[in-house]
Structure formats: C-alpha cells, structure tokens
Amino acid sequence: MTSATRRLAVVTGASSGIGAATARRLAKDGFEVVCAARRRERIEALAQEVSGRAVVCDVTSAQDVAALADAVGPRLELLVNNAGGAIGLEPVAEADLDDWRTMFETNVLGVVAVTKSLLPALLAADGSGQVVVLGSTAGQTAYEGGGGYVAAKFAVRSVVDMLRLELVDQPVRICEVAPGMVRSEGFSLTRFRGDEKRAEAVYAGVAEPLTSEDVADCIAWIASRPAHVNIDRLTVRPRAQAANHKVHRET
Asked: For residues 22 and 203, what is the distance between their CA atoms, to the nearest angstrom?
C-alpha cells in the first residue's frame, strides 16, 4: 500500500520501549506511523525501519505539539498517547515537587495537549478515529512509593473517562491500556535516575514480566476492532502479578 492509502497513526514516546514496539506493530498491520519523540536519531532510525515518518516532539512543548499537528495533516485514524514515565519512589512526605511536576506535565498535560491538537484530524477520519492512552495499573490502585506517578496515572484515567463522556456524540473512540509490570527499555532506569542495580531489582525473580511487544499487541488488537466497538479500558498484567503489591518471585 502507498502512503495515500494506508491508515495513519501517531505514536508519542516512540523512541524506545512500548512506543517503539507499538510503532513496529502498527506498521506491520498496515498503518503509516508518525513516530514522535524527543530523541531525533532514534525516531529517524525507527521511521526508516517502518517506512513511516519522524517528528521530533516534546509533548510538554506547545510549539512541538503544534508542529506535530501540522506534520500529521487533516486526517488521522489512530493516536497512541504513550509518552510519559515515572521518577523516584519517595513517599509523599519526602516528595520532590520538581519530579512531580515533570510527571504531571508528561503523563497528563502531554496527553491533553496532543489529543486536543490532533482531535480535528481524528474527527475527520470518517468514523474510524481512535485515541489510545497508555495508562497504568498505578492509576487504578495506589501503592507505597508510587507517589507522583500514581497521582499522575489516576489523573490520566480521569482524562480518558471525561473524554469518552464529552465525545460520545462524535465519531471517535477513546480507549485506555493499563499495563502492570512491564520490563520495557528505560522505564525503571529512568525511575531510579540511571541506577541499573535498582532498576534490575524491580524484576528480580519474576520469571516472565510483560514485554513492550505484549503491550503493543494489546494496542494493535484494540485498533483492529470494528468502528462501533470501544474497548473502554484494558488492564494487562503478567501472570506472576496479581496486584501492584502482589508479585510472585521465584527464589
């Protein structure tokens, strides 16, 4: 298929982890993918790999988000709001407010800004427009040390639910994928500010945490549903994780 006939998808945070895996999977499923992220070299290489397009975009920058909308154009079938992340495990009483602001701006305000900017193109997609937001089980149940990340993902969940209510009479679907433990590139390393030992300890003894490809598969399945079917929220965990605080670890 040519770019004129392929459905168009945007994936934010596409430079690594779930975002990169999602871009690859959607391209395999026939989408032309706009790979959006801050790291130019990574998204340019990915866009070349998947025959897509690269747009440098920090979702906290109004200028970058406007440029992304210009690059997308008048019609868009699928927006995957993936950009976000966690920083730190400090209790609320010891919160670093700069970290909290960063998490809120990337996880919450970034989703709102990108969705707002691209909504006209999604509504122009003849009923096939769809927004998939990467939430988290952290947005369903609080856990000790979750801090600003839990607060941000609870807010993300609320944004998704509000959008679905507000746009019920419009030809666009609003969905959330809420993963549990995912061993994705960079997530825990970012949370622990580059401390590789602490990052690896998160997965110690867990035989099979989810992979980025597992989550990408869920997103692709949601995107493949008929236009009248809305998957409000899909929660996905590894079998070894019964809840945020309940993980089976082999000794």
From this structure: 22
